[in-house]
Amino acid sequence: MMTGTVAASPGSTSLLRRLETALAPDGGVAGRRALVAAVAAAVVVPALLVVLNVLLVPVTGAWFVGLVAGLVLDLLAGTFALGVVSHRLTMRKLREQQRAVRSVELRTRAVEERAAHVESALYPDGARRPVTASLATPQDLAAASRSLGDRLQATQNLFALVSPRGPVPPLTGFVASPDVLLLLVQKFLTLRPFLTLECGSGTSTLFLALAAQQHGVEGRIVSLESDLAYAEGTRALLAEHGVAHLAEVRHAPLAPTGLPDHDAPWYDRAALEDLHDVGLAFVDGPPGKTGPQARYPFVPLLADRLAPRCVIVMDDANRREERGVTERWLPRLEGFSHRFLELTRGAGLFERGL
Predict the structure, then answer these.
(1) Could you tell me the strand order of the sheet in which 220-225 lies?
(2) Where are the transmembrane segments (predicted)?
(3) Most buried among 66, 175, 191, 315, using CB within 10 Å?
(4) pLDDT per residue over 147-160, tens digit each?
(5) pTM (2 decimals)?
(6) Cβ(345)–Cβ(317) under 8 Å?
């Protein structure tokens, strides 16, 4: 005969500990009391009822009725205990989620406060104070993702057509974007023009010269550049890639145009004297800071020098100034069609004879 206490099995001990943790996550006396109450409700009370029915009912077979009643009560008590446990678990997860949301709110507030401090440091007097942007919406993030994907795809397609011999300047900021460069190179390879004219020089000059070299396109490439230092930088870039002989970067300081309907300066007319039969033009200058509708003089001064088969690409067509230039150009561009292309900064495409 064995005497002494009976040790609980590892499985039952683990189960009891999980119940205690669920009923009172913080542990301590509250957890043990809740555990005792749950066990009593689920096991002890129904067992006592069964014993009482068996002892107090003398009728033969009545103990069976008591047993059944006890089992039913046991089932009800067990269901109740499981409901209590489930409720406590749900409330515990809810509290964890609330703490996580609160943490995100605090971090967001901290970022906004830091941004406000930076803004105050940059603009202490309130002048030129930028409009504080709101948090990005899912639609904003989706649009940004699509824009990034389009730029990457355009860059990949551009490098598939033209292979630089070395590093190229970043295609960001005020530099021509990859999608407009891709459009320009595609039109260049299709037209194979006698003269390609650029208003403004830079990476576009490089890619046109590389396309001429790698695809055997004969003809002149002339880039008008008002900034002497920038012109020298473009010439050095062409030399680094071995195509300096295929494109001329012509320094053309800004000067009055003499046009009665335009006051802002444009490229000096002396730089235009030998330009004729322009088959492809890329209008990406002068800079907007030059004056209102700075790119307007291109058509009044060069319309009679455009080839019968000609394409004009105007960059930055999203801007209000360039939209105004387009409206003034169209009546002067005889036989040209016009389309607006949804590129990074928008592009105006004018075509004739295609």
Answers:
(1) 248-251, 220-225, 195-199, 278-283, 306-315, 347-352, 337-341
(2) 34-56, 62-85
(3) 315
(4) 888 889 999 999 99
(5) 0.63
(6) yes
